[in-house]
Structures are given as C-alpha cells and as structure tokens.
Amino acid sequence: MRILFFASVAEVTGTSETQNLNAGTTDELRQKLQELFPGIEKLKYTLAVNKEVVTGNLKLSESDEVAVLPPFSGG
Questions:
Q1: What is the model's pTM?
Q2: d(CA 27, CA 61)
C-alpha cells in the first residue's frame, strides 16, 4: 500500500510518502498513523483511496494508494 502525505500532514510526518504501512481498513490505518507519527492526531485530515475521498471505515488492499489530505476548500 502506498501512502501519500500532503501539505501540513507531510510537515508533521516529515515525509511525503511511505510504502511500508499495511492496514486492513481505513480505521486501522488511522490508528497506525497515530502510532508512527505523533502529532498527526491533532490534525484534521481526510483520506482518499485510489483518488476517491472516503468517509467511514473502508476495507483496504495492498494495491491501494491512500492520500492523507489536510482540510481544503473549493471555489
């Protein structure tokens, strides 16, 4: 699974990408992110799986690409 970090989330994690993080669901992924990157729990962020923003708990596979996105607004 490829995890991409953007903007303020990348600042907290100290990286823009990681590939050695496996989780079965988005809830598990959020928990692993908090364990690996102290401070991320203070951020509001959205997960996008394979370029689709997701809400709730979604099952993940090793081939997924997950983007961890900071809050954004559209215009």
A1: 0.90
A2: 13
pLDDT digits (tens, 9 = 90+) for 4-32: 999 999 999 999 999 888 899 999 999 99
Q: How far apart are CA 10 and CA 47, in angstroms?
A: 13
All domains of the chain in start order, with CATH: 2-69 (3.10.20.30)
